Amino acid sequence: MSSTLPPSHDVIRFWREAGPARWFKKDAAFDAEFKARFETAHHAGATGALDAWTADAEGALALLVLLDQFPRNAWRGSGHMFATDGKALAVADAAIAKGFDQQVDAELRPFFYMPYMHSETLADQERCVALCAPLAGDTARFAALHRDIVARFGR
């Protein structure tokens, strides 16, 4: 684990270069690389040390990747993968209210919406479906599937 905090653009560059083929695939090598490079930054984000990143779209996106996506890769199958979901949702709320989701490339835009998809609250799921509806690809379909599961089972 590196003790130096990366700038937000390093997080975005890593995530963009990984691309869709690695974002949602279980891949131990990718998970290990992600963890080695950004665990310190994740913990800094979790404790509020990176809250200044929420001042612009790139920083907010990087923080969302660290709070919402990183733990799902770094701690698969453990409770810690959900530990920063609440903070991620708050960051997403504020970022979307500022229009930051509309200021990033369409390929990265769904990561502003993932905290809603990962919520077990039906209202958050409905918001995710609405936010994802105009997006290309499978994002809207997956949002609806997640919503339907929460609507049916409560989680």
Helix content: 55-70%
Q: What overall geometry do the principal axes of the alpha carbons give? A: globular
**Fold-level CATH name:** Serine Threonine Protein Phosphatase 5, Tetratricopeptide repeat
Strand content: under 5%
Topology, please?
Blueprint: H1 8-18, H2 20-23, H3 28-46, H4 57-74, H5 85-97, H6 110-117, H7 122-132, H8 139-153
Helix pairs in contact: 1-4, 3-4, 4-5, 4-6, 5-6, 6-7, 7-8
Notes on the structure:
α3 packs across α4 and α7 packs antiparallel against α8 (139-153). The longest helix is centred in the first third of the chain and has 19 residues, at 28-46. This protein has 155 residues and is an all-alpha fold. The protein has one domain (8-153): Serine Threonine Protein Phosphatase 5, Tetratricopeptide repeat (Alpha Horseshoe), CATH 1.25.40. It has eight helices and no strands. The protein has helices at 8-18, 20-23, 28-46, 57-74, 85-97, 110-117, 122-132, 139-153. The termini are far apart.
Task: Using brief descriptors, characterize the structure shown.
globular, mainly alpha, 8 helices, 155 residues, Serine Threonine Protein Phosphatase 5, Tetratricopeptide repeat, single chain
Offer a quick outline of the entry.
This protein has 155 residues and is mostly helical. The chain has helices at 8-18, 20-23, 28-46, 57-74, 85-97, 110-117, 122-132, 139-153. It is globular and about 45 Å long.
